[in-house]
Amino acid sequence: MAAVAVPLFLHLFNLRQPKTVEFSSLAFVKELQESAVQRVRIKEWLLLALRMLAIACLVMAFAQPTLTSNLGGMAGSAPTTHALVVDNSLSMTADGEGGTYMAQALRMARGVLETVEANDEVVLWPTAQGGAGEPEPVSNVGVAQNALSDLEPQAGASSLADAVAGAAEAATQTDAPQAVVYVVGDLQASTLGDSVATAVPGDVQVQVLPVDTRSHSNVGITDVTVTSRIAEVGQPVQLEATLVNHGPETLPDYVASAYLAGERVAQATTTLEPGLETTVSFTVTPQERGWLGGAVATEDDDFPVDDRHHFTLHVPEERRVLRVQGNGQRTEYVDLALSSEMIADRIALRATSIREQELASVELGQYDAVLLVGPRSLSSGEVEALTRYVDRGGGLLLFPSAQARSEDYNALFGALNAGSFRGFSGSLSANRTVASFGQVDLAHPLFEGVFSQERRREDASVEQPDLYHTMNFRPSGQAGQTLIELSSGLPFLHEVRHGSGRLLLMAVAPTRAWSDLPVRGLFVPLLYRSVYYLSASTSVSGEQLVAGRPAELRVTGVAPDASLRLQGPDGLEVTPEQRSLFGATLLQLDASLTTPGLYDVQAGSTRVRRIAVNVAPPESNLQAASPEAAAETLQKATGMPIQLVAESGGEEVAETLRTRRAGTEIWNVFLVLALIFLAAEMVIARHWTPETASA
Predict the structure, then answer these.
(1) How many degrees, rounded to 5, is the angle at CA 212 between CA 211 and CA 213?
(2) What are phi and psi of 292, to 5 degrees?
(3) Does 595 lie in the same domain as 647?
(4) H/E/C letters for each residue in 492-525?
(5) What range does the domain containing 271 cover?
(6) 291 and 439 share a domain?
(7) In this structure, are strands 437-440 and 480-486 parallel, antiparallel, or unpaired?
C-alpha cells in the first residue's frame, strides 16, 4: 500500500514554484484568467485520485481479500468439532423433487464431511438412535462416513430441538476450541420441538441445511381402542379407531378396514375433513382363544409407514373362578351353572369351590374372579385380603346371606368405598313379591347380548323375576354404578370400582327362598356375563407402545424366576431387563423396539402376553415448516441463533460451507476496479482539456 503514495509524491514534486526572473518583454502579457487555472487544478487532482485508486486496487487484488460472514466464521486452521445432526425419522422416507428426503440428507451430510480438516473431530448424531448409546466424537472422518452410509429411517426419533441440544453438548466435550452443529433434515413441523428452552452451550454455532420437500396427502391413525370389556369366542367385540386427515382436501367415502388374526373382518366408511380427528367403529368376532393380533388399516397414500395401526385382543384360554360357599347357604344353582356339563366346550371357565372358613388360607391372586355366595361373616384379615385383591385388578361377586353380620359386610363395603348394608326387605319363602326391576342400564358392557335389544330401544325386553327377599344396600355414590335398579329405588345389581378391580353386588341370594331368579332364563347368562366382566379387568386389550420409546410392561401370571423375552416381526428377539414385583414381573423396555408390529412376551415356549408397537402419531403429519419458521422454532427451543444455509444439492454443500467459513474471494472485483480506474485516467489525460480559455 506504500506504493499508493508514489503518484502523490510526484504530484507534489511538480508543484514546486520556479524562481521568478524579470523579463521586460513580458510586461505587456495579460494576466491569465483565474477560472482556467482552477480547471487545470481539478484535472490534475482527478488524475491523481484515479492513479492512486488504480494502484490501491491492484495491491488489493494481489492480496486476495475475502468477505466473511458470521455463518461459520471460523478460521480454517483452528481445530473444530463438527456435530452432524441427521434427521432419520420415518418422515424422511417421503419423496421430494430430488429423491427421497433421506437420500437428499445423506448427500448433503457427505458434503458437510468433505469440509472436515485434519485436526477436526466429527460426531454423527441421528435423531433416531434405536436404543444405542449416545454417539462419541471421532477424529477419523472415514468412521463417520461409514456410519452415515449405514443410517436408515426408523421410528423413535427425538424432536429436532432435543437432537440439536444433545449434539451440541457432545461437541463441547472435546478439546477443540470451536464447535459447530449442522442440522440436515426435512424440518417436519410436528417434530421440531416445543418452546421450552433446552440448555445449549452459547459458543456453539447451529447451521440448518433443509432438504427439498413437497406437499403430501396422508391419513394417520392416532389410536385404536377395544371398547368392549368382555371378549369371548363367537361374541362381538367393539373397536374404535381415530383417524386424522393430514392432507389439504376433504376425503369423502374414505374406507378403513379392521383385521383380526390376519383376516379382514370389518370395514367402515366415513368423510375425513382436513386437519380434524374422526372416530370410526368396527365390530369384530373372535373365533379362537388366546392373545390375538389385529390392525386397523387405511387406504394407500403417500406415507405407507403408518397405514396400519396394530392392536391386541385377549380372549382368555380359561377363566379361573373361586366359589366360596357361605355357612348354611345353598349353592346348587350356582354349582350347576358352573358345572362341566353346562359349560362343555362353549365357555372357558375353571371353577374351584371352597367353604367360608377356608377363605383366609387361599391365595386369591391366582383367580380371575371370586364369587362369595352367602358368607355369614368376614374377619378383618379376610376383608383386608379381599380389598387388596380388588385393588390389584381382581373381580368380586357377592351374593348376600340371610344371616349376614352387618358389621362385617359394612367393613368390606367401607374398605371399597362402596356404601352400607341396611338390613332386608320382604320375607324368605313368602312367595310375595316385594319389588321388581325398574331401570336397567342396557348400555353397560355386562349386558351386551344378554337382553333382547331391538336397535337399542329404551323399551327393550327385560325378564322380570319375582323377588321375595332383598338386601337393602345404600350406595355411597363415590365410585359406584347401579346396573339394575329395583322399583323401590335400591340397587338389585350394583358395581363398585376400586383400584384396578371391581365388585358386583347382588341384592338376592341364588336360592328359591329369595326369588325365582335361579329358575329364570336370565340367571345363567347373567352369572356368566358377570364372571366374564369381573375377570376381564385388565386383559381384554394388551398394551400399545410407541415404537422407539422406552416403556415399562407389567406381566402377571408368570413365575417370579421366569426369564421373559420379546419376539417381534422379522424374527426380532429382545431380552429386556426385568424385576419381580408382588404378583407380577416388571419389564424395562428400552428404545430398541423400533419396528412397528406385534410382539410376543415369551416365557420359554409359552406366550404369556402380546403387545402392539405403533408409529408415533406426530410422524403422520408430513407438513414441513418453512426454513425461516423452523429456524425461529429451534431458536426458541435451544435459546441460540439459528443460521440457515441456502438449499443446495449435495455436490454444492461442501463448497457452500467452505465459502461461508473462509469467506468469499473478491480479488477479481479489485482487479476490475483497477482496470476501470486506469482506463478512466487514460481517457481524461488524453481527451479532456479544461485548461483552454477564451481570448
Answers:
(1) 110
(2) -100, 145
(3) no
(4) EEEEEEECCEEEEEECCCCCCCCECHHHCCCHHH
(5) 217-316
(6) no
(7) antiparallel
The β-bridge partners of 138 are 122
**Residues 390, 286 within the same domain:** no
Q: 359 with 411, same domain? A: yes
3-state secondary structure of 54: helix
pLDDT at 74: 44
Q: Are residues 637 and 610 in the same domain?
A: no
Answer yes or no: do 272 and 285 share one domain: yes
325 and 356 Cβ atoms separated by less than 8 Å: yes
Amino acid at 113: L
Cell numbers of 559, please? 413365575
Which of 70, 68, 103 lies closest to 88, judged by CA?
103
Band (pLDDT 50/70/90 cuts) for residue 42 is confident
**Are 237 and 226 contacting, i.e. CB atoms less than 8 angstroms apart?**
yes
Q: What CATH number corresponds to the domain at position 478?
A: 3.40.50.880
Whether the Cβ atoms of residue 432 and residue 399 lie closer than 8 Å to each other: no
Q: The CATH number of the domain where 242 resides is what?
A: 2.60.40.10
Instruction: Evaluate if residue 655 carries a pLDDT over 80.
Output: no
Task: Read off φ and ψ for residue 44, nearest 5 degrees.
Answer: -65, -45
Give Cα 508 distance to the centre of its chain.
Answer: 49
Residue 563: closest CA among 535, 590, 585, 534: 585
If one counts every other C-beta atom within 10 angstroms of the C-beta of residue 495, the result is: 22
Cell of 362: 387361599
Whole-model pTM over 0.85? no
State the Cα–Cα distance between residues 549 and 128, nearest whole angstrom.
Answer: 10
Q: Is the same domain home to 456 and 485?
A: yes
How far apart CA 497 and CA 537 sit, in angstroms, is 10
The candidate with the shortest Cα–Cα distance to 123, out of 160, 148, 105, is 148
- Given a contact cutoff of 8 angstroms between Cβ atoms, the answer to whether 447 and 533 are in contact is no
Is 368 part of a structural domain of the chain? yes
> Rounded CA gap, 497 and 479, in Å?
6
* CA–CA distance, 497 with 478 (Å, rounded to integer): 9
Sign of the C-alpha dihedral computed for residues 569, 573, 579 and 582 taken in this order: positive
Q: In whole numbers, what is the pLDDT of the chain averaged over residues? A: 85
Higher-confidence residue of 175 and 259: namely 259
Which triple of cell numbers denotes residue 136? 462419541
Judge if 270 and 368 occupy the same domain.
no
The x, y and z cell numbers of residue 312, run together, are 391386541
Q: How many domains, in total, are found in the chain?
A: 5
